[in-house]
Amino acid sequence: MTYxxxxxxxxxxxxxxxxxxxxxxxRVIDQSPWLMCFPQTKNTYEFYDPSNGKKYARELPKSLVxxxxxxxxxxxxxxxxxxxxxxxxxxxxxxxxxxxxxxQLWNYYQLVGFSCAPISSQCxxxxxxxxxxxxxxxRTWSPGQTMWTSMQVESQFLDVENNKVVFSNGLFYCLNxxxxxxxxxxxxxxxxxxxxxxxxxxxEESWNGVRFMVGYKGDIFVICTxxxxxxxxxxxxxxxxxWEKNDTLGSLTIFVSSMSCESRTYVNKGMLRNSVYFPxxxxxxxxxxxxxxxxxxxxxxxHNLDWxxxxxxxxxxxxxxxxxxxxx
Length: 328
Prior knowledge:
Layout: H1 6-12, H2 17-26, E1 34-37, E2 44-49, E3 54-59, E4 67-73, E5 76-81, E6 88-90, E7 97-99, E8 111-114, E9 125-132, E10 135-141, E11 149-154, E12 164-168, E13 171-175, E14 181-185, E15 190-193, E16 210-216, E17 219-225, E18 232-237, E19 242-246, E20 253-256, E21 261-264, E22 275-282, E23 287-292, E24 297-299, H3 307-312, E25 316-318, H4 324-327
Parallel strand pairs: 20-22
Antiparallel strand pairs: 1-2, 1-25, 2-3, 4-5, 5-6, 6-7, 8-9, 9-10, 10-11, 12-13, 13-14, 14-15, 16-17, 17-18, 18-19, 20-21, 22-23, 23-24
């Protein structure tokens, strides 16, 4: 059983009692991400643990008061002041700060993300902007560098807003508003717009809703939500150059938000699997809104999700460290 992927472990566990006991004994439960929130009237931030409904509050460092979260990954957040490109990497659990060099942008960037925690030498912070039609400027920074590295490429790709980025397989996958896909390879410093057909929806206007992109072990997923209809899940098939519609996530659970998306294979008992969790609390702030792909319904049924608010929401998912309770 120790050699099985989690989905095969779960399948094997239903064979008989002895197989069940063996499978459960070696099954590793993924810790679910936490929801991080910023109360509007306080210089504090809160964590919400969806596995038990508990909240934990912390005070925001004075230097970060008024800053906005731009991206989150591996328990760190990339922040800057409004209408500013002076970035800071902040660990809200350990309170560690990494101040990045001045980006020196004369105008606002359109897409930003990073590959992993800045405690790793492999960390790459990535920004992209189109200064003139037909060209985009890519800037990157890694720990130890005193300035950003810049390159310009011919490309007509970015939209004014709602561009998405995910780091997977050593690449930054970028999705624009019209669902065109491009990749940036930070090791080779190459930019390519892929020949991939956009996901097909029942109604083309449906893509005026909110889209989320997430990676899991090399696979790339897009979740599209719109109006009062059920979310659609698509998985990238690079070999065919298409986005394939998925009717199931198997044992996967996906947590989506505008600043970050997380994926887990076997979440805590009591949480939904084969589901998508949203950064929205209900039932007296004790439960997150989730959509069960298997049941094809929301939990709770009366969720009151406002997709416009979700797009602009400052609440996002973040990966807590293993020793989180020692830090908070």
